[in-house]
Amino acid sequence: MRALSGEARTVARIQAIRLGASIDAATGDDAVRYALTRALSRSAPTESLTLRRDDAPDLVIDSGRQTPAGRALRVRLNTPLGELETVSDATSLRERQAAAAFMTLLLCCGVLAVFLFTRRALERNVIEPIEGMRDRIDAFLHPRRSTTREHSDGELATIDALLDELVDLRRRHDMAMADALRQRLHDIARHTRFIEQVGDHFRQPLQALALFVAGMQPGEDLRQRAVLGQMRTSLTRLNELLDGLLAMARFDAGAVEPHAIDLITSDLFVRERAAIDDDARRLGVDIHWRGGRIPLHSDATLLGELIHRLVSNAVISTPNGRVLVAARRRGDAVRLEVRDNGMGLEPTQQERVFEEFTRLPGHAGYGISLAVARRIVDTLGGSIGVRSSPGRGTLFWVQLDGAAVGPPLKAASMLSRHPAL
After folding, report:
1. φ and ψ at residue 160, rounded to 5 degrees
2. 324 three-state secondary structure
3. Which domain of life is it from (predicted)?
4. Three-state DSSP state, 69
5. Who has the most CB within 10 Å: 111, 134, 245, 298?
6. pLDDT tens across 202-229, in order?
7. DSSP bridge pairs for 333
8. Where does residue 71 rank: exposed (0-12), middle (13-18), buried (19+ CB within 10 A)?
9. Cross-sheet strand order for the sheet of 59-62
């Protein structure tokens, strides 16, 4: 409606400008009157005009058309001869405004009708079924507090049927999960007994053979001494292979459950340092331990075995070299690193280093130790990786998320200041 009013005023002003322009070349009252009368006849709906002059009487010209009361649109314009006031008929403007108001009213009524219809449709098709479903679920979950309402609508009957089906599916799922759990526990127990029996059956002959070999006296025969030494070495490797295979079997069967306790890394380092010192001195390896003050929450036995396997692997790979064993804290995680300056690994070897029977250069074993280490890390819920450069050493790292205890220690952040290998 504002646009309609603005349009009408713009048209009236343009007509006033045209009327004022028609008297620019006129001289004398008669010429001015004639020019205005002629221009007014071509300027509908302008009905009349008044030219107010300072040095002459006002000049009033009327087209003879009557303007209804209250529907006059007046425009004033300055001209060289004086102020020109025009009066236009605004009847068409009022009619257009009335039509716009009527259309606006119809639009509001339509919007209101659509709103009411949509609201009722939502209540009937969405809200009521949801409320019925809520009552049905509440009655199922809380049978003593809720009352089940009977609904005759088809949608609610369908929802009730689906809920009954869901209840039946959940019941069958729970039964299936319970059966699967019992079967899994039975399989774990069966595998555990099998592993123990296999270990006993193999270990007894090996122990008897080891005792027999230990009691042999080769005398001064160098060949017999060499054969006896080879037999002892083979028995040692067979025992290591059997221990590794049994350990992998226990982890794969799910028979190993971690028991987490609060401990400090120095507890692990002291025990493993005593277990590895003999081999380190025999191979001329210098081992440094860093980060022993970090508290953590994990399985001490599994962590000790993990560190032992990683450090033993590093010692074997670094004769007459250096090995760094470090623990550092990263947020709520604890990161263990075993770094050596040995021969390193090729990229193809790094991809398969944690697979079974992957033998590393310079190792006389069967490639079982690192495979067991990966299983230990998986059981503890952590991650393990390796970075290595041929000829520049190898870094094995283990990260245990959520294993850190208490606030971070300032000493833990200073672990990077260790001697370069």
Report:
1. -60, -40
2. strand
3. Bacteria
4. coil
5. 298
6. 666 767 777 777 767 766 767 777 777 7
7. 330
8. middle
9. 59-62, 46-52, 82-89, 72-79
* 398-404 mean pLDDT: 90
The tokens describing 55, both together, are 């040095």
Q: State residue 391 phi and psi, 5-degree precision.
A: 85, -5
Q: What is the rounded CA–CA span in Å between residue 158 and residue 149?
A: 14
Both tokens assigned to 403:
């294993």
At 262, the amino acid letter reads D
Which residue's entry shows tokens 């380190």?
280
The crossing angle, in degrees rounded to 10, of helices 154-214 and 128-141 is: 50
**Structural domains in the chain, sorted by start:** 2-89 (3.30.450), 258-414 (3.30.565.10)
Residue with tokens 């520049």: 392
Partnered with residue 261 across adjacent β-strands are 298
pTM for the model: 0.49
Contacts of 300 (CB under 8 A, 6+ apart): 261, 263, 267, 268
Structure tokens at 254: 């799910």
- Work out the angle at residue 242's Cα, subtended by the Cα atoms of residues 230 and 338, and round it to the nearest 5 degrees: 90
Please answer whether residues 41 and 33 qualify as being in contact, where contact means their C-beta atoms are separated by less than 8 angstroms.
no
Alpha carbon distances (Å) from 331 to 41, 74, 261 = 92, 81, 19
